[in-house]
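Here we describe the complex-level prediction in full. Unlike the single-chain runs in Section 2.1, the two entities below were treated as one system.
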Amino acid sequence: MNTNHEEWKQLVSAYIDDELSSTDKDTLHNHLVDCPACQKYLKELQSLSQNVSALNNQTLSPDLEQRLNNLNSRTERSPMNKTSLWKVTKTVVPVVVIAVLIALTMQIYVKRGIQGRMRSAADDIGNQYSANNGNRSSLVALGTAQQKVNKNGSITWKDTASTTQPSSQVFKGDESRSRKRAANKLFNASEVTETQRGQDPVALKEKYWGANSGQIQDGAVEEGYLRRENDQRGGFMAPQYPYAPVQVQESNTEQYDLITENDFHDVTDDPLSTFSIDVDTASYANVRRMLNSNQFPPPDSVRIEEMINYFKYNYSQPGWNQPFSINLEHGLCPWNTSHQIVLIGLQGKNLTEQQTPPSNLVFLIDVSGSMNDANKLPLLKESLKMMVAQLRPEERISMVVYAGNAGVVLDSTPGYNKGLIMNAIDNLQAGGSTAGGQGIHLAYNIARKNFINNGNNRVILATDGDFNVGVSSDSELVRIIEEQRQSGIFLTVLGFGTGNLQDGKMEKLADKGNGNYFYIDSLDEGKKVLVDELGSTILTIAKDVKIQVEFNPQAVKAYRLIGYENRKLANKDFNDDKKDAGEMGAGHTVTALYEIVPAGSWENAGGNVDPLKYQKQTEKKSFWGNSDEMMTVKLRYKEPKSETSQLLTKVLKNPAGIGGSGWFGSSDNIQFASAVAEFGMLLRNSSYTANSSYQAVIQRAQNSAYNDQYGYKNEFIGLVQKAASLDNRARPQVPVYQQQVPVYQQYEQPQGYQQK
Amino acid sequence: MPALEGIFTRYKKPVFNFAYRFLANRAEAEDVASDVFLAVVSGRYHHSPQAKFSTWLFTVTRNSCISRIRSGKKIFSIWFKTEQGENQHMDIADESMPGPDNALLKEEQSVFLEKALARLPLGQREAIILKEFQNMRYEEIATVLNCTLANVKILIFRGRENLRRELKTSGLGEEMQ
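The structure predicted for the assembly as a whole is:
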């Protein structure tokens, strides 16, 4: 029997697959009846077969899903082009090889980099808003994607820490159980020590997973999925979680730079305030996107100046020989009536089409898989089409894409060949996941090749946060951008989508490239940016525009610049032409607000500082006179092609009897701008909100929402209402000295100030 | 050829799982899967109408896997393996697990099985995968593997035998009822 046992076994194997002929089956049945060994074997095989088929359970990674979806949708839309597909597949293989090589070489860097970042994120949590507030705001926003991830994250954490839930902890087969126990012990031990060191468990969690703190950056995303590096304590590797079928896409890695709000400065100590203008509007669009998805924006995503500058104001047009006009207005501070507000508004010259120099635009477009969402690449395509429709014949446009591979999809094409351009736009597809490519070099090379003298030569980077443009480090990227800026090719950044937005970095890059950063959340915004403001977005009329304000201590005791936190300059930078500053496009308006404590106020706005011990505090400085002036605004700018700056100055006279005229006497400009500023302060939970309220914002905005050509101002009112309903934070305590403020101060005697 | 949409939804998981078990490397399996569907949509390989579509599809998948192994990409997959293959085991957690102690056992079993499967000789592995994952008939498997029916029978039998033996020696086989 033993000799043909092997044969019986074979029959059993085929039997469970139902592949036996009926005669064989009968023979086997007969045999099974009196062979317990074979019965047992049959059972074992059946169970084995079951267990093996249970391994057929691998879910597709979101990345792969996306790749397949792309393939699928591509065929639906256009008939397949065999040759181009061949090309694609042919390039896929080397690119994968290159990516793997890069991954190999970057392995160490990634490990260190990631751990470092996670650590600093964990450290920062205590004093910084970003990560924590992400959590907080997501609590507010019920049912948002972010919250799902939070939940997810915490569940994951529990799994890791507890010994009773080993479902995802898997180690090497045979000795796995004993090792697992040892490992858990180890892990728990290390956790305890961490906790004992006084770290917040949340921070600790962030440190390991960094999921919510948004610290996983480009380098970490390899082949489209997050490989979370673990601490290797005592040789133990915490289990690496493969993506559950859940939402890697939805994990939120948006990054916002910390914004430290500007303080009040005492005019006697610090009479000069210097900053660079900022015409970006991205922050407002981003805030709008978050509010519209019922999410309360994290404070650092709110840049008040960008919110104010989103709107158009009624300023006087500049003289024929000046690129812009300076407008100064003055009114009561609506959220703190013992203060005043000064508005500085710049109006850039509107150029008619004939005056507009021709554009040479190179779009550098991120087509990685993540751009596939409806609010990313498709939105960009629609916006681009609207823009192309307005392109003039002599203008040129080209497109470079990057993802797995950088490639030119449209070489520089003149504006009269709209069909070709439209076609290329139609063919844009998101797909691919790997880092790589020389996108940025390619884009700049094309821009250089087609350089239009006296034209508007610009690279426009459109992305949702992946900067795998062919440069490995941020500083390298910045260096390239700065270098190209010197030679007259500027950079504009368009941000799209959610979840991975690297807001701070985008703004910085655009800033370095003498460009603007826009966040495009809707077709309307795409139209606003690319079509309505084509001239201005794209065309610089003055560069390195800096503003320096000198306050007169006879009229002003202290001042505070609202917003522009990351645009502040040192006073000496104002006259230094080498110092880079913001650019102004045709038709742009730039608005800055100062909150002012008038001279003679009893407030100690400069803070409480002990008298100096070694220096005699000189009695107040003597004045030059000009006691009727409140402040002088100085402005430096360069013509787009020039490297030397020009100076403009304008004086704001001390307004008489402002207290008497009351708030409602102030202009629509100042009412609306201050409403937006107040809204921004509320969102940021500013310490200067005083008596601010959403209601006051709405009321003032309604009073002043005239000249609302595109409906932006009314949309703003809707947003404020939305924010009011989403904001369930405790209102900050109003500082004591502000609570007992008499409604109107005495303004008539500013000169009394220095005789204190 | 069935409608494209249907092909994607129906076969993306099987194709990926086949490639994944075949190559024992997720990244490569993903690439293979997307290559295969690229081939499908581009009509790069001719699909003769008398052959069953699934058979054809898995033939393409298998060939794609083999050429991937041949093209020397193994060097890199070795790296990936040491990096994650040893420590990373995919989500095998079975929702229908009876209880905690059984769950642990079951999990260890399937992890072990997974590894044992990956250690099988190629021919046996692919035959087993096609049989157990796709529940193909031996004839179809023979078409995919381009061999005789008897051969398939033997491959599957040897594969099972090997797996059984490995489980037995590991001590896990006993509990496997």
